[in-house]
Amino acid sequence: MTTAARIAIAGAGVAGLTTALALLQQGFKVDVFEQASQLGELGAGLQISPNGSRVLQALGLEAALKTCVSQAQGKEIRMWNTGQRWKLFDLGEDCLARFGAPYWMVHRGDLHRVLVEAFNARSDRPVRLNARVVNARSTEAGVTFELNDGSQHRADGLLAADGVHSVLREQLLGEDKAQFTGLLAWRGLVPVERLSAHLQAPVGTNWVGPGAHVITYPVRGGQLMNVVGIIEREGWRSESWTERGTHAELLQDFGHWHADVCELMSAIEQPFKWALLGRAPQTGWAQGRVCLLGDAAHPTLPFLAQGANMAIEDAAVMARCLALDASPAQAFVRFEKLRWQRTADIVNRSRDNAQRFHNPQLSDPDKAVDYVSSEWEPEKVRRRYDWMFEYDPLKVPL
Description:
By secondary structure, the protein is of the alpha+beta class. It has a domain at 6-72 and 105-177 and 279-361: 3-Layer(bba) Sandwich (FAD/NAD(P)-binding domain). 35% of the residues lie in helices and 25% in strands. It has an eight-stranded mixed β-sheet. A five-stranded mixed β-sheet has the order 2-1-10-18-17, with helices on both faces. Strands 7-8-9 form a three-stranded antiparallel β-sheet.
């Protein structure tokens, strides 16, 4: 496809901006439309494993990111009530040696700021705010689309990176509401200096327990600890990133866990809560000159820490497809064929991890230790994670 082509992207999140940068690197013109009135620090922590970090490095973002990412020494499993530890895997130099790229832990807002600054510096047009794409029509000659202000626009192709509540997904795939998973997530950030010394260690921790689990890891260069608690809870439906909760509510859910968990939860500056929604993997992302990617195409539960990584992988593969094929429609079909099975596997295995983290055997003192020792046996861990980290979207055959 000629690099004089102009590609429009709906959504200026991680998926949209990384794709925009990958397209600019290939020589395309890019317009990014974002429904929000300002770009800010939404969300909390993200884990960028080697399959994602190698793309960010290739986009020339490593120097900017090194000022804000945390490179943990490793990840561990801990028992919800006793605190007993098991090594999950090493990170740092071991990760670089095995996979050729780093494992970064980063505040979503920090990654987003780096992406925005890079795009605005490299593009002929900055991100357009207050601009929600509300419908689109694909033709042989291009794609026309309308914004929420009624204005009409045209591009050679349109990428829908407008998230889990994508308007364009609904148009392409029909009524497709995400289903509540029965899981409530608590999240918050803790200034590391508020924590006991042993909780300041630069490691990621998965606390596993009956019907719930807790994830912690450092972000913002180790200044903050990201804390997420997931608990099974029926009858609660809000999916806002900004619904405030109270420490009293939070400790109702986790106050009977190990003292370290209670300390982490109590130290959160402001707890937030949201419902986790899920969708079964579905095809049909590519339709004419419009294509879904990121969460709009394959929303996932966060239990493999791969949501952002799949979006970053999408960006690299999409840019390569558009550079290779004669038309966006061909490129989009190629993209979906290349990405469908991998993303479906991650969505399904992430759901499986929820059951693993919450297994009822963890409530039985006679079974819990054997259960964890078996489920996180080193060979099983390698089979569970290596295939994800080894994937290189910059080299996967097209």
